[in-house]
């Protein structure tokens, strides 16, 4: 029998929801490109419920315990004596989320001799040290595409929030109890006619481009892999061979590239300084792609008109993180990929992965980041952090 350790984000401060705003959610059976949605043998939850927190347990407890496995769920993942560190040494499987990552460092992996599988409930497995996972013989899997569209919708929302000056306007009628139209309009613009670009045109980046096209903007992109000519023509895309070329040509940038040594701190003072004065950046990929303090300086100087996103480092960030108090921001917690709709899909995908792994059956190749157990079927895909 296996021990499965799930590290999930804490319950709502007001307690687990007794009911929900909607009675149902749409059923998604497939994604662009032909990949099907998760297909576990069964589910023990109601789609549309809160599953990603501790009480939600990804809907896995009944399934695992009926099979005789041990299932431990916690949100306590950092600091000396954390539940994660106490339970990890004899765990066979660790389940984590990008929104509340259990950082599987080389030290933690070395301290867990039985650990054979790390599952990301969602997409983005850079909280797992992949070289250590490979040398340890671990399998690393994530529920590819389960929340890619969720993230793309969030990115478009934050672009509009910044450009239309939504949050300060909203504050005038709520916190300030006012009707200050001139103040609200003083930093509000139309998105129409602007040049908008994405850095990284994978699943999420392409979804953002497709959702922005009806806004009558000029679309740009940069990626190491150029999109097919027919896609460029369909969306009216301008290709840029490098980030600097893209950054200098656009009014709005949405970041969807993986985090790796070449992209870490890519948007520093120099590259942000190459952007048009009054540009906007939305980052729903990874926080370390931008320089934390360079963003603050650019907002204070007016080089950037706004910055938004839902990725921070570390996660959760400390109370004194400067992005909490910098001007012209529209930051959120890391929530873009954990809507109730997305939770139904990534919970089902997590169960599908567990069903296959526990039975010794091949895991879908598109779910595999590192194949440590020969369960890749047609072979594991290349690792990507952005969807």
From TrEMBL:
Binding-site residues for substrate, renumbered to this chain: 123, 147
Signal peptide residues on this chain, from the entry's feature table: none
EC number(s) given by UniProt: 1.17.1.9
InterPro entries: D-isomer_2_OHA_DH_cat_dom, D-isomer_DH_CS1, D-isomer_DH_NAD-bd, FDH_NAD-dep, NAD(P)-bd_dom_sf
Domain of life: Bacteria
Residue stretches making up the D-isomer specific 2-hydroxyacid dehydrogenase NAD-binding domain: 156-336
A single GO molecular function term of this UniProt record: oxidoreductase activity, acting on the CH-OH group of donors, NAD or NADP as acceptor
Pfam families: 2-Hacid_dh (PF00389), 2-Hacid_dh_C (PF02826)
Assembly mode: Homodimer.
UniProt-recorded name of the protein: Formate dehydrogenase
